[in-house]
Design a protein that fits this description.
single chain, 229 residues, mainly alpha, Glutamyl-tRNA Synthetase, domain 2, Arc Repressor Mutant, subunit A, elongated
Length: 229
Amino acid sequence: MEYARQGYLPEAMVNFLALLGWSPGNDQEIFTRDELVAAFTLEGISGGDAVFNREKLDWMNGHHIARLAPQDLAARVRPLLETAGLWDPSYVTDRHAWLFNVLEILRPRAKRLHDFVELGNFFFTETVQYDPVAVEKSLRVGDMDEHLAALDSAYEQLDTYDPSSLEAALRAVADARGMKAATLIHACRVAVTGKTVSPGLFEVVALVGRARTHERLQAARRLISATRA
């Protein structure tokens, strides 16, 4: 029960525990329960001491998370979002496709179910919590206030708010303002997510949406101005 509370899947725990004292005789490490039953033989049981490697369990859990169908994954993450106060009833009605897309973009980085909440909380809130180190590194540099204003204007004028259009607009702004695109990408990421690390920025911005991205770029500019004042 404690491992379940920590975000580990039952499938992963069964898989992990089975391999502590047994080997299938080949390099396969990821098994469903049915595959374990089919592959098990008494000859595969080892006599050595088992080593409980938490990193291996995390790795294995990530693989089992990757195997979950979108609907199943959403059902398992829902209680965690509810506990964190981040659940919205619309996630099972008109915004279920949006939720599936958010979980899908987070899935490659998730080792435990809690990672969906911890890594993606900015998707489910109106405002973001800024990492002070990220702010200092990416927002309080040069003329970033003006750069973000130009980016905000470019994003507001887009006819299509998709990753490719968002990327093209950002790179055009960076080029027009004589700055490296990477610098503006880092600043935009901090403004929209509050963090220095996230899934692909332009996929993130598309899912955060036009209105909330505008609000967050404005909030980041206010933060920069307040610091200068």
